[in-house]
Amino acid sequence: MKTQQYQPFLLRLFHGINALLIIACLITGFLVYDSWDGRFGQLGLTVKNRSLIDIHGTFAFVLFFVFLGFLIVSIRIGRNRLIKSDDLPKLINKVGTKIWWHRLHRIVNTTILLAAILSIGSGKLQDENWLPSGEMNHIWYYIHLTGWLIMLLAIATHLLMSAKIGGISLILSMFKFKFSTK
After folding, report:
1. Which of 52, 64, 128, 161 is most solvent-facing, going by the fewest CB within 10 Å?
2. Helices 98-124 and 139-173 sit at what angle, rounded to 10 degrees?
3. Rounded CA separation 117/111 (Å)
4. Phi/psi class of residue 95: alpha, beta or left (left: φ > 0; alpha: ψ in -120 to 50)?
5. pTM assigned to the model
6. Distance (Å, rounded) from C-alpha 58 to C-alpha 15?
7. For 118-165, what is each residue's pLDDT tens digit?
């Protein structure tokens, strides 16, 4: 008999809210970039609109507080899902095995947290008037763009790794409303 996977309630709760806010920040952030900057490619979906910067900032403001909770829960409850000190050396020795995939997934999970810290932290150090003023060469803006690019790639990898490691049952376990006192 196959056992059902269970993820701790607080981890699921913060993971879900955090994921929604990060997706909202990615979308609004891209729209801000597309309308004000576009140096590295542009789709032209929007016109220059100051409201987009404010909407992106509002999502980021809420994300800051939710992410702090998620970070604490991830370190306390989900620490076995984050990188361990022996993961990198052992990653080289067992390429392609089941434990190799699990170690790689832990590295990706940790990368997402670090990318979020980089993105949120650099976002807090920006001035919301830089883009409307045409000031796009600030170091914090470049760090912010880099953080979000890493975040986007890490989330895509996280979804693929979750499907590879746990299959649909792992992914669905994040959406269950079941609560256990264990």
Report:
1. 128
2. 140
3. 10
4. beta
5. 0.84
6. 19
7. 999 999 999 999 999 989 899 999 999 999 999 999 999 988 888 887
